[in-house]
Amino acid sequence: MKKQDDINPARSLYYGLLSQMLVFTESEDRFANVIEIIDILIQNPLDENSCEALKEIKEFLNIGGKELLIKEYDEIFHNPVTKNIRTTASFYEEGFESGKKTLEVRNFLGKTRIRRNEKVFKETEDSVSFLVTFMYELVELIIQGETSYETLQHCLFAEVINEFIDQFIIELYEHDKSNVYKSLAIVLNAFMEFERLYFDVKKPKPKETDRKKSQESCTFISTEEEKRRAQNRLNKAAESVMQSCALEDDYFEDENGLSEM
What we know:
Structural class: mainly alpha
CATH topology: TorD-like
CATH architecture: Orthogonal Bundle
Largest sheet: 2 strands, antiparallel
Number of strands: 2
C-alpha cells in the first residue's frame, strides 16, 4: 500500500483508542475522549463488522460507564480467580515472559528518544498495551514531520506485532468474561488487517497447535474483499479526522526524564 500522509491521522486514532482500552492505569481520565474517537471511526469504518463493534463499545460505555468497563478489564487481565489473558509477544512466541521479544522492543525503543516511564507503566515493553501505545507515539512523531521513524514503525509491526497479535485477538474474543472487549477484538482484528496492507506484510501462518482453534473461532476475520476495500475506507476516515486523541502524558519519558506525550 502506498504510504499517504493523510492516512496517519486515522492510524493515530486507532492506535490511540487501542491504547486507552488496553493500558492499565488508575487515572481518572483513563477513558477520556473514547466516545469522541469512536464517533469519528464509526463514520468511515474499516468494514461492517468493525463498525458494529464500535457501536457496541459506544453503547456499553453510554449504559454502563467506565466503571463497568474497568470491571470487565480487571476480570479479563487481572483477576486471579479467572483465566487471565497473556499479553506479551514473548509468551506467545516462546511460552514465557520477558524473552527475546522484550529485548527486541527495547532495542527499537532505544533508537528513539521515547522511554517507558516505569513508575506508571508496569507491563513489559513487548505487551500489547505498550506496543499499541508505542506505535501511537511513532505515528504522532511522523505526523509532526519526523519521517525517520517510518522504517522503525514498519519493523516494529512486521517483526513483533504481526507475529503474535492474531493469537492475542483470539484469546480476547473467546474469554468467557469478554463482552465489550469481544467487540474491541473485532476492531483490533480489522485494524491489524489494514496495517498489514499498509506495511505490505503478510499474515503469519498459524502455529499447528492454534490452527484448528483459529479456524473454528475467528468468524469475525475480514474477507479478502473487505481487506481490499480497507485502504479506501481508511482514506475516507482520515478526511473526518480533525484532531488526534490525547493519551496519558505519563506513559513515556524522553531521555531527559520529560514526558514525550
